[in-house]
Write a structure and sequence with these properties.
The complex is a heterodimer of chains A (50) and B (338). Chain A contains no helices and three strands. By secondary structure, chain A is mainly β. The C terminus of chain A is likely disordered. Classes of the chains: A mainly beta (50), B alpha+beta (338). Strand 3 of chain A pairs antiparallel with strand 3 of chain B.
Chain lengths: 50, 338
């Protein structure tokens, strides 16, 4: 049996003695929250650089 | 044989589990039952040549979903119940030599997701009232298998330590209108002397009331009753603070540091536990590089801990070793180090 909860992949099997075993796999690495973008430099005249 | 025997003087359950006497004890690394089963090798618990993270029901469980009837009769003094519950093993890594302190942050983040998933799934069972996630690391705390792993006990009752903490938290909330752990953490941050490592969302500190020599509490800044409330950002920050703390532990005496890591959170009994606050606690038996603290007469018989260390001194020692900050933990990993 295989199911996907959110971005967790779970695959459950039964061992020979009947116990549950679950394989968890994570195909996509979790993303570290992106730091806020640096403030856009503004030149002394007050106009943004491009 | 396994059953719950009531301790009428302490008013708590004792689990008998005589079959656990037969469990595998410190096998050589090439016969580890928690490693993957490699082609041509002996069959381990995991019938696959590799894995990411695995959870399975313990081969020697203290509690089981379909327990046998007790072997002894109950009396009015000594009630007995079947030892119903679930005991799971969580394999952190296929690498036998790995440890939480050495794992990439992504893997620890994955592990947090698995903990959350197990809390939700096990806690949804009608007979499970408390999901207890923990890790014993090192022979000093009774480890029998060195492969990096933790355990989960899904209890049919709220275990007594958690029950006592919850009762105190409930009373504090009723008297002061705020969460006890939130108030305690605010005091710790304001004082600052016992802080060990700070993340954006999680803080590690030696609590004012520490019972163990290098005891640490790791708790979210915001009020969270359980793992069910974890966001991806929470788990990411937790991973970095947890890894940094464990690197500090290993650096303290320049050797793998034994500990018991336990996670306290809201029960899963269907009641309202908004006053509960998720936190990790680390109980650490080493009081010096080659000296262990034992739970001897006063601790075991009187229930009163004697701590040979001051929390303020322990925190200062931990601050001085290992990564200086959570940013340093991330920077070391980005640079390709542990």
């Amino acid at each position: 049996m295989s199911k996907r909860d959110g971005d967790i992949d779970k695959r459950e099997i039964r061992l020979p003695d009947g116990r549950r075993l679950i394989f968890y796999s994570f195909p996509d690495p979790p993303r570290r929250p992106e730091p806020p973008p640096p403030a856009t430099p503004v030149n002394p005249s007050g106009q943004q650089r491009h | 044989m396994s059953e719950l025997r009531w301790h009428p003087f302490l008013e708590q359950w004792v689990i008998t589990a005589t079959h656990r006497q037969d469990r595998t004890m410190l096998p050589p690394a090439d016969f580890c039952p928690l490693c993957p089963t490699v082609p041509g090798g002996f069959p381990t618990e995991v019938p696959a040549p590799s894995y990411d993270i695995v959870v399975f029901e313990n081969k020697f469980p203290s509690l089981r979903a379909d327990p046998p009837e007790p072997a002894v009769a109950a009396t009015s003094v000594s009630p007995v119940e079947p030892a119903r519950g679930i005991c799971e093993v969580v394999l952190y890594s296929p690498n036998h030599q790995d440890s939480l302190a050495a794992m990439p942050l992504d893997r620890i983040h994955h592990l947090a997701r698995v903990w959350k998933d197990r809390y939700l799934e096990l806690g949804a069972r009608d007979f499970v009232r408390y999901v207890f996630v923990f890790e014993n690391r090192g022979e000093a705390v009774g480890v029998t298998l060195h492969h990096p792993h933790g355990q989960i006990y899904a209890f049919p009752f709220i275990p007594p330590v958690a029950e006592k903490e919850l009762a105190a938290s409930r009373r504090f909330h009723a008297q002061h209108g705020r969460c006890l752990q939130c108030a305690s953490l605010a005091d710790e941050i304001k004082d600052g002397r016992r802080i060990v490592l700070e993340g954006e969302r999680y803080v590690a500190y030696v609590p004012f009331h520490a019972r163990w020599p290098y005891e640490v509490t790791l708790a979210p800044r915001e009020h969270q009753v359980s793992m069910a409330e974890w966001s991806e950002a929470d788990m990411e920050d937790l991973s970095a603070v947890l890894k940094g703390l464990l690197q500090k532990y290993d650096a303290l005496f320049a050797k793998p540091f034994p500990y018991m890591m336990v996670i306290h959170q809201a029960p899963t009994d269907g009641e309202d536990h908004r006053y509960a606050h998720l936190r990790f606690e680390f109980y650490t038996p080493h009081r010096a590089a080659n000296r262990l603290k034992f739970l001897a007469g006063v601790e075991s018989g009187a229930g009163t801990f004697i701590n040979d260390k001051l929390a303020e001194e322990s925190a200062a020692e931990l601050r001085r070793v290992g990564p200086a900050s959570v940013a340093a933990v991330r920077a070391a990993e980005d640079a390709g180090g542990a």
